[in-house]
Amino acid sequence: MAIDGLVVTTTEFLGINELGPFSPILQLVRITVTRKSEKRGKNFIEERAICLPIFTWNSFSVKCHRHFIFGSRTDMTGYGSKRGKQVSRLTAVMVGMCLFAGAIIVRLGYLQIYKNQEFRAFAASQQVSTSIDPATRGRIFLRANKGGDAAIAAENVTLFQMYFDPNPYNDRDLDALIDTGYVASKLAPVLYSHFCGAGAVSAQISQEDCEKNITGYTGKPLEKLASPAKEKGSVSATGALVPEEKNLSESALIEAAKTNRSAKIIPKTDEEILLDIEAATQAKISQKEVVFVPLLYEKDPTVLAMYKEKYALPGIYVGDGLVYGNPLEALHDAEGGLPKDYEPLAKELGISFTDLSQKMTRRLSRYALLTRRLTPELRKVIDDLSLTETKCPQLYKQPEKIEGLVDPNTEICQKLRKAPSGKVVKNFYGLALREENWRNYPEEDIAAQLIGFLNFDKDGNYGIEEEFDNILRGADGEMKIESDPRGRLIASNLKTDQIKERQDGVDIYLTVDRVVQEKVQELLAAKVQSTRANSGVAIVMDPFSGEVVAMAQYPTFDPNAYADAYEMVPTSSDPGRGIPMFIKNEKGEYVSVPEKERGKIGRGVEKFMYKNKVGPAAFMNMSVQSTYEPGSIFKPLIMAAGLDSGEITPNTTYHDSGELKVDEFTIRNVSKECLGTKNMVNVLNYSCNIGMSFIAQRLGKALLHKYILDFGFSERTDIELPNESKGTVYPYEEWSTARQYNAAFGQGLTVTPIQMAQAFSALANGGVLVSPRIIQKIVYKQTGREVVPGKQEEKRVISKDTANTIMAMLTSVAEVGGSKNARIDGYFIAGKTGTAQIASSSGGYEEGIAGNTIGSFAGVLPADKPKFVIITKIDRPRSSQWADSTAAPLFKEIGEFLVEYYNIPPDRK
Prior knowledge:
Blueprint: E1 2-3, E2 6-14, E3 28-34, E4 38-40, E5 43-55, E6 60-72, H1 76-114, H2 116-127, E7 128-133, E8 140-143, E9 150-164, H3 172-176, H4 180-196, H5 207-218, E10 223-227, H6 250-257, E11 264-267, H7 270-286, E12 293-297, H8 301-310, E13 316-319, E14 322-325, H9 343-349, H10 353-359, E15 368-374, H11 376-390, H12 411-414, E16 417-418, E17 424-425, E18 431-440, H13 448-451, E19 453-454, E20 460-461, H14 463-467, H15 469-473, E21 477-482, E22 499-500, E23 507-513, H16 514-530, E24 535-541, E25 548-554, E26 568-571, E27 582-584, E28 590-592, E29 607-610, H17 622-625, H18 635-645, E30 653-656, E31 659-662, E32 665-668, E33 676-679, H19 680-685, H20 689-710, H21 737-744, H22 753-764, E34 768-769, E35 775-780, E36 785-787, E37 795-796, H23 800-816, E38 830-837, E39 853-861, E40 868-875, H24 887-901
Parallel strand pairs: 8-23
Antiparallel strand pairs: 1-2, 2-3, 3-5, 4-5, 5-6, 7-21, 8-9, 9-15, 9-18, 10-11, 12-14, 13-14, 16-17, 19-20, 21-22, 23-35, 24-25, 24-40, 26-29, 27-28, 30-33, 31-32, 34-37, 35-36, 38-39, 39-40
Helix pairs in contact: 4-7, 4-11, 16-24, 18-20, 18-23, 20-21
């Protein structure tokens, strides 16, 4: 074999088997070729070449390197060892080169194959951007009036966040020239108007809310000392603080003065309040460095308490629902970072110590929030301030050449300052407004539990906002845009499948009449307050269509300010059964006190309760979520079951001795009118428990249970509201005789008010169970398509004759029985009161006295030609334990309004 003119003398294969996946073919081949050596005595010259294979992806070649060996015969003794060393060095070099080449090949394979999709996505992210077109959330409407017009109950509004950049020029000397006092004096009147209603989202801001807004902003009370006491620890005759009191805040001083009879406390004037707002504003916009850094948002009070106790570090604070830091107060090392003392905190927060140190680094503030939800009207006032300033001649070198400038003597222009450099500094340069989309509830607390609210994360909570959150929020549109390396749009690459059209949320129209709802809420609130009850519910429903005309409860809340439901107030005594009470522990946290433990609380311990009595329970819709034992309003349903089954007639009689022993229990009547031989009309008129037990015995457990279920109990009504409860009716196989009899007069089972409205509608409409509904229609705005909920399949519960008979019997109850306080002049009504005992947590029932019962009334108006079923329920009234004195009069008041509002002609002479 000849290579490059030489003759191959030897061929050796040096196996290198650890070169990865290519080792079988990448063996090192050494081909030694020699030319006839030229001898010169004992010396010789030998020409040699080392030839190595060169591999590429698709070819193979050989590369030879010549070299000459000079030596002598005498040197040949060591030639073998020298030659071996050369081979070893060459082998090592070649192994290294092959390893390096193999590593590159493997790496390329990893990047090109295994990481292919990841790098494609990364490349796309550099070339393709996504533009989001946010969907508009749908609105919610009430019926504005009986004419069918609509009133907006939930809408989207564009309001403004107002903030100030304390370092707008990013130049210490220029920023220092901004007259923050002047800026604050101009903003204070705008903020006052915003806090107290003029130009606010709601023009009906109460005095209480106005005061809350101002004190929340200023941190100062709206009162002052008018006649300072001269005694020690108060105020001197000149109005100056006595030395012992100088460290007290203004609020603390006012509180201290309230116990001092010689101190007179009076409200501040508007001018003084404006000065407080001005001072607070100046403090905010003058803060040049960041003083607030949120570190953790947390709702769990136990977690917050742990942070407060375990990480009491300088500059670290635990507030309401969050852990935050103040870089100005934190410790820093020589390089400006945090010392190692803060490392455990970083670990607890789940972030690196470096990240925490960066968050807490001292730095200039570029954002001082002043207020949110500023209206367009007040925004214009703010814009005018900034706009006027830009028209000051002092800002321009040649003002005479610019049109539209204002008089240089204008106050805003006079307040401009010039830096040594000659630059004129604008005072309002750092003032900014940012658009924000807010969910607004113009009807405030009207139908609040029906509507629900949007939380801070823009998720629907409670009511329609929660139940229909998916279709109310709609779907954002998006467009994927491909651009070249310079950022220019590649229009030809825009494909149809890269565009997703925006789908706005639907508009939802409710069956609730705004006028009726407002009036029912007003009457209910007055009744709960006058009876000193815990809470109350009222429902007005069309018995034929199932449409809910009104669904009210008290206490209620304003969805625009739902957090107010958590507000606590001091209480001097136990607020009563069913009302939460709190004390503060050593960490300052509110701790609930069980009712059984309240008597152990010492006199000196300050007690608290929710301002609205029930706290966040006000968010719940008690008409569909709260269950209770209905008591005597359940009797007409069991009476109807007895009539429908043929087991009794209105004239069926029984003997009532006043007591009935069942198992180990004794059933008693409340009214003495039940004694003796009575018929079924008497049983309803006088609400006889033993008479109802007689009917239950006639029906038997299985049939009684069947009728209860047929009336819709132990099942959800499927009204279009979230988290509906279905109540509890135990299987009849588990019933004792006592439970069987108790069920006949509404004990031992639980129901919701909406279930009672549904069941009574079956009595009023001729015996058909109609599902209640709250949705009138759903409108898809972009297409105009309207969806009207279809009428659900009706289920006959009792015959029409039975329904007519029971309605006549209920009319008798209102005329001569225990429902006289529900009667409406000029109209026949059909209804029944119910005074239900409350089950005790320790077993049995609470004593049936004022404060321990639930009064309810279920009635139909008018009795002859029913238009409405009305359910009223008052929880724990303290003025009287009897429903005839609490729930029945509320039915009457609501009914009187309805007959007038709907012009229902009288049916009674």
